[in-house]
Design brief:
The protein is α+β, with helices and mostly antiparallel strands and 441 residues long. Among the domains are: 75 residues, 2-Layer Sandwich (Herpes Virus-1), CATH 3.30.40.10; 181 residues, Jelly Rolls (Sandwich). 24% of the residues lie in helices and 21% in strands. The strands form 5 sheets. Strands 10, 11, 12, 14, 19, 20, 21 and 23 form an 8-stranded mixed beta sheet that branches. A 6-stranded antiparallel beta sheet has the order 13-22-15-16-17-18, with no helix packed on it. The longest helix has 36 residues. The radius of gyration is 25 Å and the shape is globular. The chain starts with a helix and ends in a 9-residue tail after the last helix.
Length: 441
């Protein structure tokens, strides 16, 4: 199975290209004749055509056919887009106007869809008709900032659908949706993260003050085991400070009924790894049959929860949460739109946030233990390096409408280099927060 999945990445980009827009599929759908197109491309084509026919094979339909989402094409198209983005990330953006030796771009114009060096940017700073153009930091693939349907700038963010849209989109598919300027959404998310960090720091100071009160009121030799445990919880590790914000340490166990047949679970259901062989298991409705994934036995519908996973020296893994109704059969797409809030490791050193657009994360060192924090009411899923006491990534301002479950993917063993299991840490580790010898009273 894993060999088949790996071979899919070798398929040509042309096989996942819409014949209408001549670009890689965006939200691909299939029609009865079997051909696939971008959703906006085929709907716009039929809106502007006298006959309802397939643009590729010219099959004519009596009525407007039903559009079926092509999950396979969607998965492969997103991989192609990610590969293209990765190929240009970290590279210098050059001026599009320079002839011969090109100079480094100073700004990119979202209306001109071009990047300019200092000298060629000058008209945008002087000419009145150009001064109103939207200038941003040098950016590659500027065409991705343009609505493919309306050919206008994606300057708004739809909070209802969690995606960027143009002004005309708000008059059609996104009518009456909660939309705000892209810049406002970005600033508010940054402000929210700062508030979270400030709350954590305030909580730390408050807990330390309470520790001093305990010290003054009770002799250390008479402190009950309950107080000692509390001191251990409040002392040295940032991850437990996160856990203390009225959250509940989660007793997480893996659900064998959801585990892919290639995965092996330990007897205590706290460890999972790739077994290299497919087991003969019942094809239950809740079992992942293609993606090497497994969910926890219990989900959350309220409250704050925290758990930790020992990832050790594994070279690839996925961790996070998934909503109860996620697709279990066929190729799985890890993104909030499909009900997954995850962070993953690839190639031993590439950490990614699996958001709508996959985001490459910059970590100072490889985490050995990853903490996952969920605030159901606030719509937050955060990841932490539990031992380095540092923040990795957060999904914020999501509205959970159903139960969400801890999610695990140990990835393939890769010839043994990634055979180590994902290990769910026991609650006792979270509650203790380290040896009592490390505590300063």
């Amino acid at each position: 199975m894993f060999q088949v999945m790996a071979s899919l990445s070798l398929l040509s980009d042309v096989q996942f290209q819409c014949c209408i827009c001549q670009d890689v599929f965006s939200h691909p759908v299939s029609i009865p004749c079997g051909h696939s197109f971008c959703f906006t491309c085929i709907t716009s084509h039929w809106d502007n055509s006298l006959a309802l026919s397939c643009p590729k094979c010219q099959t004519i339909f009596e009525g407007r056919p039903e559009l079926c989402e092509n999950y396979f094409a969607k998965e492969m198209s997103e991989q192609i887009q990610a590969r293209r983005q990765n190929s240009i990330s970290g590279k210098t953006i050059y001026c599009d106007v320079c002839v011969g030796k090109k100079s480094k771009a100073l700004k990119s114009c979202l209306l001109c869809l071009a990047s300019y060096c200092k000298s060629h940017l000058e008209p945008h700073l002087r000419v009145s008709t150009l001064k109103i153009h939207k200038l941003v930091e040098p950016t590659a693939m500027l065409e991705n900032r343009i609505c493919k349907r309306h050919k206008m700038l994606l300057e708004l963010y739809c909070r209802s659908d969690q995606r960027c849209v143009c002004v005309l989109c708000t008059e059609t598919d996104h009518w009456c949706h909660d939309t705000v300027p892209v810049e406002q959404e970005s600033q508010e998310k940054k402000a929210q993260m700062k508030r979270i960090e400030a709350d954590v720091q305030h909580m730390i100071q408050d807990r330390l003050q309470k520790m001093e009160e305990i010290k003054l009121s009770v002799e250390l030799s008479k402190v009950s085991s309950e107080n000692i445990s509390s001191v251990g919880l409040l002392s040295r590790n940032f991850r437990f400070c996160i856990n203390c914000i009225n959250s509940l340490p989660a007793d997480v166990h893996l659900d064998p009924g959801t585990a892919n047949p290639w995965l092996v679970l330990s007897e205590d259901q706290r460890q999972v790894w790739d077994g290299d062989d497919e087991q003969k298991l019942a094809d239950l409705p809740g079992r992942f049959d293609t993606a090497p994934c497994v969910l926890a036995t219990k989900g959350f519908t309220t409250g704050r929860h925290y758990w930790e996973v020992n990832v050790g020296d594994k070279t690839a893994w996925d961790l996070g949460v998934a909503q109860q109704s996620v697709k279990r059969k066929g190729v799985v797409t890890l993104c909030p739109e499909d009900g997954y809030w995850t962070v993953c490791l690839r190639k031993g050193s590439e950490y990614w946030a699996c958001a709508g657009q996959a985001e490459l994360l910059s970590l100072s060192h490889r985490p050995q233990v990853v903490g996952v924090f969920v605030d159901f009411e606030d719509g937050t899923v955060s990841f932490y390096d539990a031992e380095a006491q540092s923040h990795i990534y957060s999904y914020t301002q999501f509205k959970f409408t159903e139960a969400i479950f801890p999610f695990f993917n140990p990835e393939m063993s890769d010839g043994g280099s990634n055979r180590c299991p994902l290990i769910i840490c026991p609650i006792s580790r979270i509650k203790e927060g380290g040896d009592l010898d490390d505590i300063t009273i």
